[in-house]
Amino acid sequence: MNQTDTQYSDANADVISRDGSIKLHSATDFDGMRKAGKLAAQCLDLLVPMVQVGVTTEALDNTAREFILDNGALPACLGYRGYKHTICTSVNHVVCHGIPASKPLKNGDIVNIDVTVIVDGWHGDTSRMYPVGKINRKAERLINITYDSLMLGIAQIKPGNTTGDIGAAIQEFAQGERCSIVQDFCGHGLGRLFHDAPNILHFGTKGQGEVLREGMFFTVEPMINLGRPDCKVLSDGWTAVTRDKKLTAQFEHSLGVTATGVEIFTKSPAGLDKPPYL
Ligand code: MF3
Ligand code: CO
Ligand code: CO
Which one of the ligands is nearest to 238 CA? Predict the structure, then answer.
């Protein structure tokens, strides 16, 4: 989501609205998120063998949409604020919200695929990086750093820790690897709503921010750049790119805070959480 966004309307707006409070969820709500997260992860698993030289991001979008509908779920992005696709496909210097198109992927590209499904009213939101053909060492290194930064952020999650602990862990690691962190977009609460409180910044100070409590649901979705952190949104109103046109990467999980730590709802059932997808 966009960090500056505070209001939006969606199909749920009459039922539940975003009032700024952080919702605490029950055991049956965890069951709902488990199902939604699993289907979203299975959708990304399905796309793994399809991401090859020559495939179009439009073809990936069609496959994702059909898979979701065939499973009795809804593509959350389709129709969201006028977005016309099921997935976001962000190639090379595209930070996020890349729009599926008819241009074929080429050898050496790296692409983030981000999908959100709605199962029985619950949102599962996840993204991964996909290498196209043979990628170079810089790209491979960025992908590894980005995945590790996500998992280090998630490792901070337990009741009593804060959102700042998550951001600080990501910042310390990514900047220590001489990478920069996108500040224009952040993780978000989710559940029956797609984007809810709290905002999860991917940088910050230990002990600052919101205190984590059992039953909170949110995403962590760091965008990490090889060059400068600065982004701009293209005239299509969606595509966010790095201003210096250098490579960027992102991974995203949806998760819940448990009594003792964290449950990741969007882990790959096939073990395909990060490349190489052998
Ligand atoms: N899935 C994105 C997120 O992580 C949101 C995409 S909104 C869309 O929050 F409309 F671009 F699909
Ligand atoms: Co998200
Ligand atoms: Co997402």
Answer: 1
Domain assignments of the chain as residue spans, ordered by start:
3-13+21-264
Residue with the smallest CA separation from ligand 1 atom 11 is 97
Decide if 222 contacts 180 (C-beta within 8 A).
no
196-229: burial string, b at 16+ Cβ within 10 Å, e else: bbbbbbbbbeeeebbebeebbbbbbbbbbbbeeb
Ligand nearest, relative to CA of residue 98: 1
**Kind of pairing, strands 240-242 and 94-96?**
antiparallel
Q: Cα–Cα distance between 38 and 106 in angstroms, integer?
A: 29
Tens of pLDDT along the chain (278 residues)?
Answer: 665 554 444 444 446 888 989 999 999 999 999 999 999 999 999 999 999 999 999 999 999 999 999 999 999 999 999 999 999 999 999 999 999 999 999 999 999 999 999 999 999 999 999 999 999 999 999 999 999 999 999 999 999 999 999 999 999 999 999 999 999 999 999 999 999 999 999 999 999 999 999 999 999 999 999 999 999 999 999 999 999 999 999 999 999 999 999 999 999 999 999 999 98
DSSP run (H or E) holding 175: helix 163-176
Ligand 1 centre from 194 Cα, in Å? 9
Q: Which atom of ligand 1 is nearest to the CA of 116?
A: 1
The topology under which CATH files domain 3-13+21-264 is Creatine Amidinohydrolase (3.90.230)
* 247, 20 contact by CB (below 8 A): no
